[in-house]
Specification:
This protein is an alpha+beta fold and about 120 residues long. It has helices spanning about 40-50, 100-105, 115-120; strands at about 1-10, 10-15, 25-30, 30, 55-65, 75-85, 95. The chain starts with a strand and ends in a 6-residue tail after the last helix. Bound molecules: ligand 9L3 and magnesium ion.
Length: about 120
């Protein structure tokens, strides 16, 4: 599983989940499941095209691996916004947050451990 840290002008893009019911309303780094044969960068580019309508590149790791209960591993990557303006095509809403707001928003549990690493790249904390 791959998740994207898109940081522009010291703010991080967060997306509000719509499903499953226990995660609906919580905020996450957008992303999803890498398909067979995809590199992490391939998966990030496809997922962000599908979910946000944007083109991204890159993919340096940020934060630690997060083991999921089903045995998969969730990894966050910093990506650059190459083109487009993010639109919530698969989420309830989008928000750009600074370091202080990142600490106050209701993140999905899996993403909470990344906050200290993410904050190093954000303004306002
Ligand atoms: N998940 C957690 N944080 C994230 C992402 C992209 C995904 N930043 C978790 C939520 C679900 C599982 O991974 O338990 C599958 O996510 P999805 O494929 O429904 O987005
Ligand atoms: Mg997703």
């Amino acid at each position: 599983m791959v998740a994207a840290a898109i940081i522009v002008d010291g703010r991080l893009l967060l997306a509000q989940r719509t499903r499953p019911p226990e995660l609906a309303g919580l905020w996450e780094l957008p992303g999803g499941k890498a398909e067979a044969g995809e590199t992490a960068e391939d998966a990030l580019r496809r997922e962000l095209r599908e979910e946000l309508g944007i083109e991204v590149s890159g993919g340096d790791r940020i934060g630690d691996d997060v083991p999921l209960p089903d045995g998969r591993v969730l990894r966050a990557y910093r990506v650059e916004l190459v083109s487009g303006t993010p639109v919530a095509l698969d989420h309830a809403d989008l928000r750009w947050v600074d370091g202080r707001e990142l600490g106050e928003i209701d993140l999905v549990g899996n993403d909470r451990g990344w906050v200290p690493d993410l904050r190093l790249h954000l303004n306002g904390w």
